[in-house]
Each structure stands twice: as structure tokens, then as C-alpha cells.
Design brief:
Length: about 240
């Protein structure tokens, strides 16, 4: 497996980047790890890095992006924080990764059985963790399918909230970063949500969250259903104002 160079990175499209991650996860799940010499990659990346994708995942010890997508040194920017939340510092990291360092695709990777999501479901209060979990609370609120046992002991509830959290993070990227939103609209980068299953090692890409060229929004409908809608000039004006 070759290390990415300025030339290979420059010719890649967001769809190519997505394909590489698909293939990498296929290798991971089938135990077909690429033959790569990490020490050699240290040498090859000593003068610069040209990662093709940027992945926001949880700190969970089972969701290391380099491992689950079978990537080596210099291949991906890896941003990790509990519950794959978005804040200004994370948006700044993504802007660096895409605008300055040439990364072509942003992936928000949620996962099953997430402790941070469970903590938010149970409204856990603990020091600075409370501040972080508060950022996941709207995802708990937006979950409207489950009526009984809306706690971490209900696996289906936790799973629904985790999926909503991924969509909210994707939405936050286009809502809160003018730079990234413009790059998506201009087809310079793509963004997509994905979900990792800690029981099988499989990553499922959430196709309805993929944006490349067209800006879509994740809305909460009156009946509580999460739907995506295309951006019109009216909504653009509303969100810009
Ligand atoms: Zn987690």
C-alpha cells in the first residue's frame, strides 16, 4: 500500500476517498490487512503529509479510524472526541485538514453502544463531562420513536440517538463552518455520516447524509421524523441571517 503524495491527493475526488474507506473497512472486517511498512511510511511522510480524508470519531477504544479503515501513516486526519460532537476547535481542525492540507472527504463516524450517548440518555452529571454531554442532549430530545424506557438500558433507544447525533454533527459542519460549506458547494470536498458496529467491525455509510455540490439540511419534522431537505435560496437566506 503506497503512501499518499501531493500528486495522488490532488487527483482524488471525494468519491475516490469514500471508495478507499469502503475498501479499507472491507479489508478490516475480512482480516485482509494491507501490506504496509509503517516504519517506511515514517520516512516517506517526513517532509509532509497528504491525507485524503478527515474522520471525526468517538474516543471509544474500539473505534480507532486508522484501524477500522485499515489506513497507514499520512492517510487520514483523525479527530476524536466523546460522542463525535462538533465544537469550534473541531471545526477549525476540519478547516485546516481540508482547506490547508487538501483532504477531500469529511466523515462523521458514530458507533453502536457508545458510552457518551448512553451518558446523555441518562443525563449523567460529572464535572466537565456534563458540558460535553449537554452537546449531545438535543439528539436525545429529537429521538421521538421510543416512548417507554428512554434510558441507556434500552439498546434501540441508544442506537437511535447515536444515529441522530451523527446527522446533527454533519448538519453542524455545514451550518457553522462557512469555509467547509463553500468547499462542499464548490465540489472541492464531500461530507458523509457513517456508523460503526462494535459487534461486527462493519462501517455503514449513511448515504442520505452525503453532500457533494448540493447542500442539504437535516430537519426535524412536526411528527419527530428526521428528514433531509435540499437547500433553497430561501433557506440559505434564513440560515445566513
Ligand atoms: Zn462513543
Amino acid at each position: 500500500m503506497r503512501t499518499h503524495t501531493k500528486e495522488t491527493q490532488a487527483t482524488l475526488t471525494p468519491s475516490d476517498a469514500l471508495k478507499y474507506l469502503h475498501e479499507g473497512n472491507y479489508r478490516f472486517v475480512n482480516n485482509l490487512k494491507s501490506n504496509r511498512n509503517l516504519l517506511q511510511q515514517v520516512n516517506e511522510t517526513r517532509d509532509g503529509q497528504f491525507p485524503f480524508a478527515t474522520i471525526l470519531s468517538c474516543i471509544d477504544s474500539r473505534t480507532s479510524a486508522e484501524l477500522v479503515f485499515d489506513q497507514g501513516l499520512g492517510d487520514i486526519f483523525s479527530i476524536r472526541i466523546a460522542g463525535n460532537i462538533i465544537n469550534e476547535d473541531i471545526l477549525g481542525s476540519m478547516e485546516f485538514a481540508c482547506k490547508i492540507a487538501g483532504s477531500k472527504l469529511i466523515v462523521v463516524l458514530g458507533h453502536s453502544k457508545c458510552g457518551a450517548i448512553k451518558g446523555a440518555c441518562d443525563n449523567v452529571q460529572l464535572g466537565n463531562l456534563s458540558t460535553l454531554l449537554n452537546k449531545i442532549q438535543p439528539s436525545v430530545y429529537f429521538e421521538r420513536e421510543i416512548v417507554e424506557d428512554r434510558t441507556s438500558s434500552n439498546g434501540e433507544f441508544v442506537n437511535n440517538v447515536a444515529h441522530i447525533q451523527v446527522k446533527r454533527s454533519v448538519e453542524a459542519i455545514i451550518e457553522r463552518s462557512m469555509i467547509l460549506r463553500e468547499m462542499i458547494a464548490e465540489k472541492k470536498i464531500g461530507v458523509i455520516g457513517a456508523f460503526y458496529d462494535v459487534e461486527t467491525g462493519t462501517v455503514e455509510f449513511m448515504e442520505d447524509t452525503f453532500m457533494f455540490g448540493e447542500i442539504k439540511h437535516v430537519y426535524l419534522a412536526v411528527d419527530g421524523e428526521l428528514t433531509t431537505g435540499k437547500e433553497t435560496e430561501e433557506t440559505t437566506a434564513a440560515t445566513a441571517g
